[in-house]
Amino acid sequence: MSDLLLSFVVIGLDEAGDLGASIASISGQGFERDRIEILYVDSGSRDASVEIARAAGVDRLLSIPRASANAARARNAGLEEVRAPYVQFVDGDTKLEPGWARTGLQALEADSALVAVEGDLCEVAPANNLYDAVCELDWPASAGPVDYVGGNSLYRVAPLRAAGGFDPAMRVGEEPELGVRLRGRGGRMQHLGTVMARHHLDIRSLREYLRRNYTSGVACAMVAQKTGGLARGYWSGRLWRTLGLAGLFTAPVALALPLSVWAARPATLLFGLGPALLLTLAARKAIGSRERGVDARFSVAFGFHTYVSKLPAALGILSVLIRETASLTGRPMTKTIFLDRDDTIVPDRDHLDNVEGIELLDRAGEGLREMMRLGFKLVLITNQSGIGRGYFPESMVDAQHARLTDLLSEYGVTFDAIRYCPHLPDAGCACRKPMPGMLLDAGRELGTDFERSWMIGNSESDVEAGRAAGCRTIQIIGEIDLAEAARLIAEDEGRR
Question: Which CATH number fits domain 336-494: 3.40.50.1000, 3.30.1330.40, 3.40.50.150, 1.10.1060.10?
């Protein structure tokens, strides 16, 4: 019989900057080394994460394919291998607080009905980053029963396995969806009144902040769909509250615009109503946070964050509702492959300003033909900031795409839609990758089922855009070209 008491499963994807400290924090949990095991699950990192984990002395190093990786799959891979009766999951950008695991373990051992516990999750340096500071205030802080626990939590292994682990189809929102199933089986979860871990969110721009909140909206809608539909249940209520607040702020502005044609003064008053409501609610929230001892600067930011965040979250929810509506009305949902252009289908010639430079990369035509054979719609998605920089007009991009269409016609390949963003990187638009605007726009037109769709490109911004839209992703790098990507997709289709 194993003497192991607790397994630690650390998951990571390109977390080289934080991973070493994350694994090292396990040694501060107060257990003898032979009573614990440390597993690291890598999701296809392209940095030094694997080497760092190996040097840190993990007991087992596991990996899952990057193309289909998500947190749920990574945690499940670790869950399948753990040998102890309890498991603590740790994200690679998180450091456990000294002694946390022993505190959590004591809580589980004292109450056999508890299946999981969590504690406070704090940011590493919130005083240095306003985005991190306001997001930290979102983490639950009150001790007591909770409906679900977050990703960095301590579980009893047997009930977690009995429930089937995390749902691998949930690319986001996997923790609350699991919480619903655990509670349905009679399990309880608890938030303990102590610090559990230090997290390194590291949001550095408004675009990253908006993308995070958009993704939270997608998660809310996906959990609502999985756990009770859009008409009932806690997550349904949260979904409609988010849409209601977003509508409360934006509807007056939307109504004021057409009204201004006939009645300028009432339109002006109506136009100001949305911002006035936002200011009023944000002020109330800021005052409430000040009463809890939050610093004045952060309390004001948190007040605005609480309500401004509802706008991108509502967009995320709507992207899921559009797919739901198409399904309910009987409209067939299509599976789509969104494709970057430069260094994916054609060579990257750095702001190409002529037609002649459009040439197919090796095996690009064959790969795209195979994707069409598998029943996928093909959509070209490309950033073309050369337009915004004045290097060439939009007509040049149109001519380039006409040539690309001609070249691909020899393989029987056609695009079902083409989208390009002409804006500069700092324009703050919603269409330029890594924002998902172009994917969502084309997806609405085609009736795309994003959960069955893919984004393929050579850069991290392509991957981020695909994930934000709810797609699976493949990065064109090294030996992976479009023909190899088609083979990977075919394998995935064969498993369905």
Answer: 3.40.50.1000
